[in-house]
Design brief:
By secondary structure, this protein is of the alpha/beta class. The protein has helices at residues 24-37, 55-70, 83-92, 125-135, 158-168, 193-200, 227-236, 263-277, 293-301, 313-323, 346-360, 364-367, 392-405, 431-449, and strands spanning 13-16, 46-51, 74-80, 97-101, 110-116, 152-154, 180-184, 204-208, 240-244, 251-255, 260-261, 284-288, 305-309, 327-329, 335-337, 376-382, 409-415, 421-428. The chain starts with 12 loop residues before the first strand and ends with a helix.
Length: 450
Amino acid sequence: MTRARKYFGTDGIRGRANAFPITPELALRVGMAAGLAFRRGEHRHRVVIGKDTRLSSYMIENALTGGFLAVGMDVLLTGPIPTPGIAMLTHSMRCDLGVMISASHNPYDDNGIKLFGPDGFKLSDAVESEIEGLIDADFIEHLAAPADLGRAKRIDGVQDRYVEFAKRTLAGNVTLDGLKVAIDCANGAAYRVAPAALWELGAEVIAIGVEPDGFNINRDVGSTHPSALAEKVRAEKADIGIALDGDADRVIVVDETGRLVDGDQLLAVIAQSWKDQGRLSEPAIAVTVMSNLGLERHLVGLGLDVIRCPVGDRYVVEAMRERGLNLGGEQSGHIIMADFTTTGDGLVAALQLFAVLKQAGRPASEVCHRFEPLPQVLKSVRVGPGRPLENGRVRKIIDDANGRLADRGRLLVRPSGTEPVIRVMAEGEDRTVIEAIVDEVVSALGEAAA
């Protein structure tokens, strides 16, 4: 049984920069603990560390580096690069460990630490728990001797390697010639590589969110603020727009009319394309509990099973690996394609969509909208250290709501793994009913948390 975790959430360690747990002291200890956990064999061990464009990423990078060096692990520093780039490099460069410093879609004053094993996959709960046990341990006996200290260096050319990797995920005869693409890089990790990859593939590229200053990552841009992209698509008469988040492991699409295309619709497009081409390893797709019922009904109608798993792209990956699937994802735009990647990759997912768009020869507004989603309402309640979900009145209201929805919808109430909030989501055929249910649950949670 996995012990309760103190530092790790659903996507690594995350929090406000320079406040617990995202402090230089803890980052130093994470470096030492993870380094010790992955020192296996007599070879010279090494870790590759990437980051996004937050001001605090430099601080965390230096602290992590010190920790790894102290236990004898060499450090390769890439500078800004997407999270899937670090996953790819960890495996392709035969590193023992990969680290991405990022808080994904969060604002600049948050940050996080994501760890990847030598196979390029995010660590399991069990391995994260092992590292947690080491973080709080006494390191004195485990520090490397002076002659065995690690060495750190910045490496060049890795961004180019990622660009080439992304381009190779398209079939050899597919180009983006004639396609006018607007891209929003969220002033984040992909601000150089993503526009470069699209241009090299032949697209006409209109880029926004490509001027990071340490403070503007995800600020009014990116996948969580797609209105800026929608406006640019309409103004420039682009064929399609894509918005990445701060570390570029997710993507949200905007069609030529400015209408939003979420991860559920993107999954539907890719799933049908791959099914028609015989590219699905199994007739099933992995999604999370947040994916719309409309997607589930659509996929079932195509003859595909739908595997639901907890929120978090690594749980989607675990379900895919367990069942031998090669496609899965989240409504938020994390799309995992096991033929190419070990984690979500916003750029690679967008390229698969562009391939379908080019083949179809029809506008994105026709290609990208495969099903009518059921009305879905999502709200968050900020909570403190208490346990409002265990409150008797809260439980009764949730139970009553489930009874009212019955088989006409569903209610999901869950603590966030990345923020101190509880998320309340309901969906069903009657928007008025689900809005009322969500408001009731949110109100009860707010009172219980007060």
